[in-house]
User: Fold MYND-type domain-containing protein from Amorphochlora amoebiformis.
Amino acid sequence: GKGRRLVATRNIREGVTLLMEEPISHATRIDFRLKRCEWCLSSKQPIKRCSKCKLIGYCSRNCQVAAWKAYHKHECKCMVGLPKRLERLPATALIAGRIILAGLSSGTDAKLPEISKSSPMEKGLAKVGKKAKIRDISLLDTLWEKKATEKKMYYAQQAMTLMNYLKPAIASLTSAPTANNMAALLSLLDANSYVITDPEMDSIACGVYSVLSMINHSCSPNAIVMFRNKTGQLRTVKSIKKGEEICVSYLDLISTPRERRRNLLEQYHFECQCSRCAIFFHEKKIKMSADESMDEKLSKLLEGKEKSLEKVKSSLEAAKLGPSDSKRALSLSRQALSEAKAVCGPYHAYVIRAYKQIWKQAMYASEMEISWEYGRKTLPLLEFVYNSPNPVYAADILFHARVCWYLQKVEEALEYYKKAAKVLKITHGEEDKMTKECHERICVAQAEIAAKAQALQ
Ligand SMILES: [Zn+2]
Ligand SMILES: [Zn+2]
Ligand SMILES: [Zn+2]
Assistant:
């Protein structure tokens, strides 16, 4: 958001961890619930279910006790009463609930004079929140006012579900949060929470952080946020000069400038002024003013193009099926690719998305040769999209290296393990398991190639 920013106080090189932070509140995403410890997010098996609600699980007794004390004592009561169809609550709803319920466990807010009101929501944020977050409460209403009616309706509906879910814990309170409070909280969480990824870049959970939420956005970021279980790490991916602002990207960067602009406006209420957006929209403006004399025929043509682009986008979305439906997904994605190629240039975000979808879906469908073919087609396009080291890109290069290795294309595997190691070193760090995997494979591949060369002599 505006006003809060993080600035480098010294020159910093790339690949450095600037800070580590624990979340104010967090929750697993639906697909990873019961596969990860709800408290520490570790995947250490077995994950034991809470014996009462059976809806969440923990890796250890310690984690269970910590969660119980923090919020689950109240949350469990709410979960036990859930009808079957509501059992799969989205992470944001769980987080909102936890923030509110944490307030019920706290005794007094005397130590926090900044908080004037004492509804459970404010107590909740005060109890778990650090200073930066507490100030956000006053922002709640102003941001809320900026929302489009359509969005407000959406959050109002979510708030009703949340209200019903929390009823067993808050029904008897005299100053329970209102549906309006909850709607505003949910929209605040949408704009301020991070998707927590594991090193392979699977989205396992969501979390709200204090300092990390103050970092502004750029489509050409000089930093990234990585996670070790639930601990957030701010890492540099470019060398940063003293006085320069530190920015991360809030968005999936495989998107068109217009998509980026729309997302940022709708969800975060600002217009991106980064160099990439500035160049694009500046050029557009010049073109637009030259186009004012444009005849009707041409404007109809452009409108038609806009419509075909929308169609490509929905074809791409329709092809996103689960791993169990991977064969059908693969053929739908191929169809989407030919649609995209018919209306977009070769570096258009939709073409790149289609390539990437086919690449990954082919692997799930055990079509390894197809996956390999699309991996080598997609990676150069991704290199064009990310103009700074990006963790998703790093994981993608490693993905292709593994496919090459599996198909016993040793020389190509070596090339991509080397490429992956170079990016992973910056994004994930030298100590990461994936970086180490690269170094090990590079050694083995080099030895194999040398042995083969010797055998040929
Ligand atoms: Zn745990
Ligand atoms: Zn429980
Ligand atoms: Zn931008």
